[in-house]
Amino acid sequence: MSRINCPTLVMRGDRSDLFHEETMQNMQETIGDCETVTIARAGHLVQGDNPAGFLTALEGWLDRGD
Question: What is the pLDDT of residues 39-58, one digit of tens each?
């Protein structure tokens, strides 16, 4: 992951049993330009579990653009 050198958005669902908060924090520390967000009412498949939350997070990140 340390070779990723572009703006990166990492999302996880608050109900995910596969992608834990500690993993997301590690990714944020390892990837240079990384933003993280936890999506409410979603498991591992965030975009399917909470499409509105997924789109809100993605569109907000894209609008902020680097």
Answer: 999 999 999 999 999 999 99
The separation between the first and the last C-alpha atoms of the chain, rounded to the nearest angstrom, is 19
| Sequence spans of domains, the chain | 8-64
Tokens of 30: 């390892």
Quick one: CA dihedral 58, 22, 19, 29, positive or negative?
A: positive
CA-to-CA distance for 34 and 42, rounded, in angstroms? 21
Question: Are the C-beta atoms of residues 32 and 5 closer than 8 Å to each other?
Answer: yes
Give me 18's structure tokens: 């596969």
pTM of the model: 0.86
